[in-house]
Design brief:
Blueprint lengths: L2 H10 L9 H11 L6 H12 L4 H22 L9 E2 L2 E2 L1 H5 L1 H19 L2 H7 L1 H15 L4 H10 L7 H27 L3 H28 L2 H4 L5 H4 L5 H5 L1 H18 L8 H12 L3
Antiparallel strand pairs: 1-2
Length: about 290
């Protein structure tokens, strides 16, 4: 993925800073431009190429899914939820703009995501049917039965021990669902088959759970400077994690097994899967 081109396209989707609404636009821009791994847009664009499509056509969908991810982070960091001070090495949105503007900035990105996926540019590149299908996919995976559902399970699990099954369901929704949306939206842009879309979903769920397991491990083994966010919060909140339930060694084993399953899913595609294979291994081995 051409990161420089993606960042340019992403920020170009923001409305102009009219004097009367500049605070909310600045809030949106602050978090949207804060960088990060850009996992979800990468997956949109890579699956589009893998299925015979193009980065250009899939770019509006890549921007849309990153907007959803960014809004979720703004809201997650609010005092009413995780109450975090740092995100991606910077002060969280509400620490800079206040809680109300942060909330509205997140809402702004949420709605802008669908405006972007259904924009004239997106339609001219993909056609009405693909844009509608991609927007519906994003709404379903980001909504109450997907990412938001995972977040409420997370909130209701704080300060109490929950079984492994609950943890897995939570992470399939909170983390895996939006990653799956990204993979599927890339496939949709390229006109992929139902079998390929299912393989993309399976790949996504395996790397999504791996991502969360590694996150739990890093909360124990890393430090705030390296991660760019506060570490040790899981222990402080008496939160059930893969590490607290299974231990570090078992977590390492499971993350490796899930990664291999993800790589196997790519056998359903005829194109060059090198980037997506390497990405799965990167997520397993990452240090931040």
């Amino acid at each position: 993925m051409d990161m420089q081109n993606f960042e340019k396209e992403l920020l170009s989707c923001l409305p102009e800073k009219d004097d009367k609404i500049k605070t909310v636009i600045s809030s949106m821009e602050y978090s949207l431009s804060a960088g990060g791994k850009r996992i979800r847009p990468f997956l949109v664009l890579e699956f589009a190429k893998l299925c015979g499509g193009s980065e250009e056509n899939a770019m509006p969908f890549a921007c849309a899914v990153e907007m959803i991810h960014t809004y979720s982070l703004i809201h997650d960091d609010l005092p009413c939820m995780d109450n975090d001070d740092l995100r991606r090495g910077k002060l969280t949105n509400h620490k800079v703009f206040g809680e109300a503007a942060a909330l509205l900035g997140g809402d702004g990105l949420l709605t802008l995501a669908f405006e972007t996926a259904l924009s004239e540019k997106a339609v001219s590149l993909n056609g009405y049917e693909k844009c509608a299908k991609a927007a519906l996919t994003l709404a379903q995976y980001a909504g109450a039965v997907g990412m938001i559902g995972g977040q409420i399970i997370d909130l209701e699990s704080e300060n109490k021990q929950v079984p492994l099954e609950t943890l897995q369901i939570m992470d399939e929704k909170k983390t895996g669902a939006l990653i799956a949306a990204a993979c599927v939206m890339g496939c949709i842009s390229a006109g992929a088959s139902d079998e390929q879309i299912q393989a993309a979903k399976d790949y996504a769920m395996n790397i999504g759970i791996t991502f969360q397991i590694v996150d739990d491990m890093l909360d124990i083994t890393s430090d705030t400077a390296t991660l760019g966010k506060t570490v040790g919060s899981d222990i402080e909140n008496n939160k059930s994690t893969y590490v607290s339930l299974l231990g570090l060694d078992e977590c390492q084993k499971i993350s490796s097994e899930l990664t291999e399953k993800a790589v196997e899913c790519l056998d359903n595609f005829d194109g060059d899967t090198t980037e997506l294979k390497n990405f799965a291994y990167y997520l397993r081995d990452r240090k931040k």
